[in-house]
Amino acid sequence: MQTSDARLRILAIDDTPANLQVLAAALVTDFRFQIATSGAIGLAAASRTPPDLILLDVMMPDMDGFEVFRRLKADPTLQAIPVMFLTAMSSMEAEAAGLAMGAADYISKPIKVETAKLRIRNLIEREGLRKDVAEKKTQLERLAHYDPLTGLPNRALLADRMSQAMMQSQRRGQRLAMAFLDLDGFKAINDTHGHAAGDQLLVTLAQRMKEALREGDTLARLGGDEFVAVLLDLDELDDTTLILNRLLTAAAQPVLYGETMLQVSASLGVSFYPQAQMMDADQLMRQADQAMYQAKQAGKNCFRIFDSEQDRSLRERHESMQSIRQAMAANEFVLQYQPKVNLRSGAVIGVEAFIRWIHPERGMLPPAQFLPMVEDHPLAVELGQWVIACAVAQIERWQQSGLNLPVSVNIGARHLHRADFVRCLREQLAKHPHVKPAGLALELLETSAFENLDHVCEVIAACREIGIQCALDDFGTGYASLTYLKKLPVAQLKIGQSFVRGMLDDPKDRAILKSIIELAAVFELQVIAKGVETVGHGVKLLQLGCELGQGYAIAHPMLAAELPDWIANWRPDPAWRNVRPLA
């Protein structure tokens, strides 16, 4: 039975081996000693079995020690072996030359065994310490660049790999993909089975996912259950899809932990490089991270590709929200008021309030240019509350000047469906106790009113108790169900301006108008037409039995300060005075 010899190996190259016999005998306990009698023999022996230390005589025939040393250092497999020169006492220049070349130490001839033993042991200890330092340095470098649990590249090494991959992508003209992967259900594994089970799951899945990639691709662990894959040289989207599906499959395979089977899935988000705009690695990762959350929302265990157009739209919307918030803080919004009149008598029955944005760069903007941006945002409620507050305050100012003019305001769906809508309305009226609630009216879009009919009916009923009447705006453009109309306790129908504008040329629009007017009469509701833009519109409406209207043929929306003068000078068109309803 063979046993391994743990002693260090020393190769002595000297053309006079008798010089070394005593030294070899003295070191036999701790070292295996091999003697070569020439430089050529020594080089061959070292190549066959690299020793731990070489003792090298300087003065040898054929090939001296310096030449042997040069050849040792030129050989990658031998160059790290420490070398001690053997020199005669009188050859101080040789000693200096050897040390200058990189020799580890020297032993003088004739050899003093005890001194030589100490020098060799000291050298071995120094080399051992050097190896320890080198190993620790290697360990530190690995810790700095690799995840200690999975052995995958960490965030720092990923950044370097990504930088190289992006440069390579530009040189080769091929795309790369960054895939951000988050495990689904990993927290439950940790909470239920403990961190040791979670760690084992991460290690196993990391290896499986790494094997699912191609040579040259990179899989890195960011921390926790988050990983990033960098996929190189992609020609087609199908190439990416294939790899992503392999990653999803690898992540979803069960892992045996003791007698327990652990299983999770993964959500993947992907971004590509290059893109139309300049992009750095951090931006790519944010895009992939955003797409990963979309995969989570889509049900998990799937991937989503970052949509730059969608992202641009979201960023623009966010910027718009910020601009609108700033505009509110800077008091850039105002209300304009459009009169509502009796076409036949000319009586001004009220006004409708419209919000306007006095933009510092684009001038006065109508609501169609900014309200759709906030329609599904909490900011829509803030704007709606601002409009109500301004309208109620204006009613009070007009009352103080002797003008009693009802004001109607438009209420958006998000605002209307808030649970505290009526309470906030009461609070606004309470701030202006001299304003009669009947001076304020609410206009509700037909489409928003029918989203939650029961709730809207409760809101309208609560408003009626306060004394506020509600109108159904743009009637006929949405559901227009008789059942809904019967249930909604509104006081007025406002005919959508699309029907009014087209009624002079389109018999179907006229028929719709006639039906709405007759329907309002059946339900005992007041009816008013929007979009009265010509004298002819007014004539036709009166013929159909609708006397109330608003539109450009009457007046454009105007500031509150302009309204008293307009009312004082307003006269209905003479053509409207004697129009009789058609039989």
Topology:
Elements (H helix, E strand, L loop, with lengths): L7 E6 L4 H10 L3 E6 L2 H10 L4 E5 L7 H10 L8 E6 L3 H10 L3 E5 L3 H33 L9 H18 L2 E10 L1 H8 L1 H18 L5 E6 L2 E9 L2 H16 L2 E3 L2 E3 L2 E9 L7 H17 L5 E3 L2 H22 L3 E10 L5 E12 L3 E3 L5 H4 L4 H22 L6 E5 L1 H4 L4 H10 L9 E6 H4 L3 H14 L2 E7 L6 H6 L4 E4 L1 H6 L4 H16 L3 E4 L5 H10 L3 E2 L8 E2 L3 H7 L14
Parallel strand pairs: 1-2, 1-3, 3-4, 4-5, 11-12, 14-16, 16-17, 17-18, 18-19, 19-20, 20-21
Antiparallel strand pairs: 6-8, 6-11, 7-8, 9-10, 13-14, 13-21, 13-22, 14-15
Short description:
The chain has 583 residues and is an alpha/beta fold. The protein is built from 22 helices and 22 strands.
What does this molecule look like?
The mean pLDDT is 87. This protein has 22 helices and 22 strands. With 583 residues, it is α/β, with parallel strands linked by helices. It has an eight-stranded mixed barrel with strand order 13-14-16-17-18-19-20-21. Helix 7 runs antiparallel to helix 8. It folds into three domains: 136 residues, Rossmann fold (3-Layer(aba) Sandwich); 152 residues, Alpha-Beta Plaits (2-Layer Sandwich); 244 residues, TIM Barrel (Alpha-Beta Barrel), CATH 3.20.20. The radius of gyration is 45 Å and the shape is rod-shaped.
